[in-house]
Structure prediction request, 662 residues.
Amino acid sequence: MSLKTPYLMFLGDAADQLAAKTASGVVHWRSEICIGQLRLKGCNADLGLPEMTLEAAVNAGAKTLVVGVANRGGLISKLWIDILVRALEAGFDIASGLHSKLADVPDLHETAARHGCKLIDIRHSERLFEVGNGKKRRGKRLLPVGTDCSVGKMYTALALEREMLARGMNATFRATGQTGIFIAGEGISVDAVVADFISGATEWLTPENEPDHWDIVEGQGSLFHASYAGVSIGLIHGAQPDALVLCHEPTRSHMRGLLGQALPSISDCIAANEMAAQLTNPKSKCVGISIDTHHMASGSALEYLARLENEYGLPAVDPVLTGVEKILDNL
Amino acid sequence: MSLKTPYLMFLGDAADQLAAKTASGVVHWRSEICIGQLRLKGCNADLGLPEMTLEAAVNAGAKTLVVGVANRGGLISKLWIDILVRALEAGFDIASGLHSKLADVPDLHETAARHGCKLIDIRHSERLFEVGNGKKRRGKRLLPVGTDCSVGKMYTALALEREMLARGMNATFRATGQTGIFIAGEGISVDAVVADFISGATEWLTPENEPDHWDIVEGQGSLFHASYAGVSIGLIHGAQPDALVLCHEPTRSHMRGLLGQALPSISDCIAANEMAAQLTNPKSKCVGISIDTHHMASGSALEYLARLENEYGLPAVDPVLTGVEKILDNL
Prediction:
């Protein structure tokens, strides 16, 4: 799926800033394509963008209204329908990362059809993929993998892409999740494809390319997460990464959403991911460690990174605190 | 999904015996629920069942017409529509394992609705699952895993269930693929669920049970298959098997469908599967090796099994040649 830019960011009646996490991520990485925000009464989130009416946003060139807000259950709130209908009437496409589908709301479906606008439910891929074939493709690929979910894999990928482009390298971020897709303007929500096609969809997303081109593929889940490991291993096999970056959040007491399930050690996690990756790319190797030190005391973060470098013989960074240059230097 | 029995097996205009592989598997394992076969002109497959008209099958008590035939592309042939419509008019449910959906054929959809019959597309699960939670459930579970696809995982599971029941043990085969679902009359085609829900669907399929009850879960794919490993690891995590059985076909020169991709060694495959299984069941262990020796010279098969037993210290069987008793003795 592919989205027209620039975006008008719709926050609805978001309960708090966290409910607008997706939208915040898009603005953080692609402020240039987010020209304004539209909020309803009672909205408690703020992206720091100019407030815009639908009309003002159209005049400023906005093409897609992005529903960048999550609410309980991932539903499309009834309070939003009226303004979403008016957005379609004004010529917007609407893109949503919610679990429930825009296209299943009759008013939206009918209005979009009447005005020739698109409703893009990025969690629901309708494209049919082939099963993965495991054949080696030209071009290089890097994939962040994690000890757990939500340990900075997307952030690390985007920081690496930014730094590569700054160095004049040939690189493309490949989005595999909803926030990533809004940021890239295209991609595949790999956790939403049919199970048989996880690696095939990933092969399609990261096609043959110039020998010096790097796909920086957004990682998902963890091989050690009992809910999502299927997505993670299919993504690894399909991406056939030359380089892996291990991502970790050191203050977490258990796997996200799984009380009582401990995190794997960094060394076990590197070993398991290298083994999985070597099935489709025998040269695959972990080239660095990316830590989210946000919850650590500030003094101890740098000490911790130094200790990891010593222990694993790999550059260890926090993309926010130290940047990712050291990892690129190790490619 | 759950199917009404007994079945009338529909072979259509199957090109050869191989095209009726699914139907043959059902008859092999559950001849008592297959009361007849219905073949069109030009059908080159034969299940050895009595030929029956729709009327004769209804009178004999048949409840579901099983489309147990595969053709190129997994499509519903136009040549079949007429008789499928008449089956619905006669009161049959129709169950199909084809890729294309019965429910997408307007004539079938309308006729089924008019007569209150069900169209059951077993490859297309419409049930919504929760994501896996990894929590240990009561009851015991056994899962065959493979060095590759199509190395006898379903056959091994069914042979183990049969032997357990013969010993008076408390056991249930849990189907995860199309032939298995026809055989069990229920199950989930796990390769057809959305990627995020592979382990969750498997947890649902193998629920908490009596402490002495064994779920014998149909395995899928291989951790070493670049197309399908996502399904395999999700199934392992969701099934939380106490016991693994390693399945292998020793004459295969490459992974099925992947020219040039070698099979893993049995020892690597046991290690990787035990490691994956121990995430949700720390006591998980491989308890035996099941070999499809069908393509080996008859003298060498038993020798090969003896060599494996010696090398791995595990019982090694061919379910067809030797039966699976030795594996049960090792539980």
Chain A has a mean pLDDT of 95.
